[in-house]
Design brief:
Layout lengths: L41 E5 L2 H9 L9 E5 L4 E6 L8 E6 L4 H6 L10 H10 L7 H24 L3 H16 L3 E6 L8 E12 L2 E7 L1 H25 L4 E4 L1
Parallel strand pairs: 1-4, 2-8
Antiparallel strand pairs: 2-3, 3-4, 5-6, 6-7
Helix pairs in contact: 1-6, 3-4, 4-5
Length: 248
């Protein structure tokens, strides 16, 4: 070990009344952290999220460098600030979400097809969606017996392969109700809406699948969507009139 070199410390106005502690550290000082570029921010929330953000920070942005993109079919409103700056451009998106129970029903979803038995089981487990539980159980019973009755009818025909589609169509039209009524939230939230649901059907590999369609629910969705989006946009226009609003 090298001999320590004497260190001289000058302390101004020291009278010697109280001891002074001096800490001497050896070694290499830590390096200064590199300066990093700002990061853009992307936030997603409920439909009013862009408005909520602006209410708190409208005085911190240049409205001429911001825009709002409205996509009604996707039920989204997207606010972009600092639109031309790669590092500081922020996007705040608000969207309306369908309720989980509405999505589980698969109403108006062309990609969802139910076998009658599976649909009956689903309705039995979700009978709280029906205001009349007895109506629900009658429908469940009809769905559980649907395939067996159809197959029995097909076997009575002389040409089963040719009459299969007609038999299933007749079963849908005669043994299932034209529609049934549910009361569930369409959009995420506690508000429940009452509307009618109709049956449609198609055949795949000789098996029938049912689809649930509701023109009434679609009308309610479109009306609520447009009213809710317009309400948010009108509030933004009052709060930040110089932000460009673009309809996709």
């Amino acid at each position: 070990m090298e001999d320590s070199k004497p260190i001289t410390i000058n302390i101004e106005h020291y009278t010697g009344d109280k001891p002074i502690e001096v800490v001497y550290r050896e070694g290499r000082a830590s390096s200064v952290l590199d300066t990093k570029a700002p990061e853009s921010i992307s936030v997603c929330g409920v439909l009013s999220t862009p408005l909520d953000w602006l209410e708190k920070r409208v005085d911190t942005i240049d409205q001429k460098k911001a825009n709002i993109l409205v996509e009604r079919e996707k039920m989204t409103i997207t606010l972009t600030v600092n639109e031309s700056d790669h590092y500081t451009k922020n996007t705040i998106t608000g969207t309306a979400q369908l309720s989980e129970i509405f999505k589980k029903f698969g109403i108006n979803n062309p990609n969802v097809g139910w076998t009658p038995a599976k649909l009956g089981q689903f309705l039995r487990l979700n009978r709280s969606a029906f205001e009349d539980k007895e109506t629900c159980m009658k429908l469940v019973s009809a769905l559980k017996n649907f395939t067996a009755k159809a197959k029995a009818q097909i076997e009575k025909q002389h040409d089963p392969s040719g009459s299969r589609a007609d038999v299933y169509r007749q079963e849908v039209e005669s043994n299932l109700p034209k529609s049934f009524t549910v009361k569930i939230p369409i959009f995420a939230g506690p508000v429940k809406t009452t509307f009618d649901v109709e049956f449609d059907h198609y055949l795949t590999d000789g098996e029938v699948f049912l689809q649930l369609v509701s023109p009434g629910a679609q009308e309610l969705m479109d009306e609520w969507r447009d009213n809710s989006i317009d309400k948010v946009l009108n509030s933004i226009r009052e709060l930040a009139p110089d932000i460009a609003i673009l309809e996709a």
